[in-house]
């Protein structure tokens, strides 16, 4: 159970950085569709639990330390090589957005240059990534309760300071940028880009767990926990649509509205969250580069320099274009994971009669 809680907490922790800590992701993929977004959240929660459970289980079953073996297991050797290459670029894409988010949040709160803040975040990531995956997992699990408390406090403030009727707020929030033309597609894209972007990290984390049941439960707990936080954040963004419609980092804006000191706390937490999420992703990316024969430390440094350069396109723009694109391509991986799950179920069912016959003999 302890391992399951650790895996679940680690997934919530890494998802916070990639999927919803800033609020911009939830705004574009859920809240901007009004009340339909809540149905999308439910669908996303179920799918997220299913896919994370499978990825943790596959990693545990293979006891893998690199995602390449797991991808070939899921997709087969030929398609697996193509998907593996795509996932490598996905890892890089998310790292770019994490660096951009660190710069944008610092600029919004402190007024300093986003370029400078992004550079500092990239340097810190390089310096800390050598802590190793085990410590990254421990840190990600530790910050999860803090994240939940922070979102709860922001939600309490937002719900007690609603300034307009909900009918007006729904109209306002629906004018915000949307990930696609339909709420259901956006919910699916949200699941897809997160699963595709985090697959490399999730299978490696699952590979550290020997008990398959612990891995399965960890995935389910992680998916459910993320779903609850997404639902809360969606309602917060609808309730505060008139206040947050022109800001890059809605959670930071609401933290400042509550109290300046709390806004500073949110900034510090976001920076820690983004950097440590970036650490986990950079670790997985460097491990992948190392499999190709590249030097681990050298790969980290080169990737972070390239990520810093790419982050200059801006946080909101990157979320609007990179994540949906990743989502569409990620559907391939989601289909492959589903087929692998059905295949394993079919295999286990076919083995049951054989086992019963052996018992009878």
Automatic annotation (TrEMBL):
Coiled coil: none annotated. It comes from Acinetobacter rudis. This is Membrane protein YkvI. It comes from the Bacteria. The keyword Thylakoid does not apply. The keyword Transmembrane applies. The chain crosses the membrane at residues 33-58, 79-100, 112-133, 140-162, 182-205, 217-241, 261-286, 298-315, 321-342. Keywords: Membrane, Transmembrane, Transmembrane helix.
């Amino acid at each position: 159970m302890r391992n399951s809680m650790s895996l679940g907490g680690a997934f919530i922790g890494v998802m916070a950085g990639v999927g919803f800590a800033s609020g911009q992701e939830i705004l574009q993929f859920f809240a901007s569709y009004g009340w339909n977004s809540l149905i999308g959240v439910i669908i996303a929660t179920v799918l997220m639990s299913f896919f994370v459970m499978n990825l943790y289980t596959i990693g545990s079953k293979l006891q893998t330390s690199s995602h390449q073996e797991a991808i070939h297991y899921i997709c087969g050797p030929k398609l697996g090589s193509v998907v593996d290459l795509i996932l490598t670029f996905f890892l890089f894409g998310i790292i770019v957005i994490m660096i951009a988010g660190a710069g944008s949040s610092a600029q919004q709160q402190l007024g300093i240059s986003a370029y400078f803040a992004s550079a500092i975040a990239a340097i810190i990531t390089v310096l800390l990534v050598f802590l190793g995956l085990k410590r990254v997992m421990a840190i990600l699990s530790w910050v999860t309760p803090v994240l939940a408390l922070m979102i709860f406090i922001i939600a309490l403030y937002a719900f007690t300071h609603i300034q307009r009727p909900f009918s007006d707020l729904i109209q306002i929030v629906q004018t915000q940028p949307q990930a696609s033309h339909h709420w259901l597609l956006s919910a699916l894209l949200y699941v897809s880009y997160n699963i595709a972007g985090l697959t490399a990290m999730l299978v490696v984390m699952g590979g550290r767990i020997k008990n398959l049941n612990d891995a399965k439960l960890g995935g389910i707990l992680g998916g459910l926990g993320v779903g609850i936080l997404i639902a809360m954040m969606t309602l917060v963004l609808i309730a505060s649509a008139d206040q947050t419609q022109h800001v890059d980092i809605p959670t930071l804006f609401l933290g400042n509205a509550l109290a300046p000191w709390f806004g500073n706390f949110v900034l510090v937490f976001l920076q820690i969250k983004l950097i440590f999420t970036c650490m986990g992703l950079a670790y997985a990316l460097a491990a992948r580069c190392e499999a190709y024969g590249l030097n681990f430390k050298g790969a980290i440094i080169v990737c972070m320099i390239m990520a810093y350069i790419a982050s200059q396109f801006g946080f909101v723009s990157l979320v609007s274009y990179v994540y949906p694109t990743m989502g569409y391509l990620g559907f391939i991986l989601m289909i492959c994971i589903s087929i692998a799950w059905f295949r394993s179920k079919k295999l286990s069912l076919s083995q049951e009669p054989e086992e019963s016959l052996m018992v009878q003999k």
